[in-house]
Amino acid sequence: MAQLSQRLAGDEHEHEAEVVPVDIFKDGSGTPLCCIHDGFGLSWSYRSLATYHDGPVIGINQVPSAGEAEPDSIAGMAVLYADRIQALYPSGPYQLLGWSIGGVIAHEVAIELRRRGAVVERLILLDPALTPVAAFPTRRSLDKSRIFEKIVAASKSEVPARSRQLVFQRAAELMDEGDGGQRELPLPLEGMLGLMARSLDANTRRLRRHRPGVFDGDAVVFVAVQGEGLGKMLPGFQAKMANEGQMRRWRRNVAGDISSVPVECTHHTMLTEESLKLYGEQLREALDG
């Protein structure tokens, strides 16, 4: 992964200031849903969740605000992100959500907010990944095409199969074509690739060192039960093991009630439009409950 970062980073930290620390996907009243960035450092994948929540929806991105130092651990990230959340919504209550590595960070943010005496009504974990292997189960998860797909998905463009062989310039053309010539990305492509690659490297290191605490509230875990690789050959076995494994791992880190919702998708398709159709109403019920 260090090689990946070196290939993609370009000028270090160029363009990072153009990504805001907190994105507001939906404003309004009610309990805010605070969505923690994924392993690539971006929260844009959560934009579609505004449909499933009546209150405000915000996304925490992995870029520093003025005067913030970069934390060296997930616990440090939790303190920083709790500060950001309370700067917007000082009194709470709050709902926390995260996908993949973001689920692990959201869990720690929930613990930090509770330590401060705040009310966390619900913790929602979307196929949370406590290990790098769980977050990136195949080599393809780490290659350049995967990052291309992530960027194009964020720009609401479809990703044709040939994108796996694209270079930077062709990927930029693809995004222009896919969005009628109106690119929605806030960063130039190479700057974005660099930001995502650095975030990926740093978060993988943090995840390896992380020892999760115990959240004293309730949690719902949405589990992707379709596998990749061997799991495709043994779908029933994969689904059973995925669901049981997630519950076994998280039950000891959640002191309140914890429940799971199996979803017929893979880890990396958890937030696609097709997957959200499968569990969106259950997500709405979890947030309203």
Automatic annotation (TrEMBL):
Highest taxon of the lineage? Bacteria
User: What are the Thioesterase domain coordinates in residue numbering?
Assistant: 32-273
What is the name listed in the Swiss-Prot or TrEMBL entry for this protein?
Thioesterase domain-containing protein
Species assigned in the record: Mycolicibacterium arseniciresistens
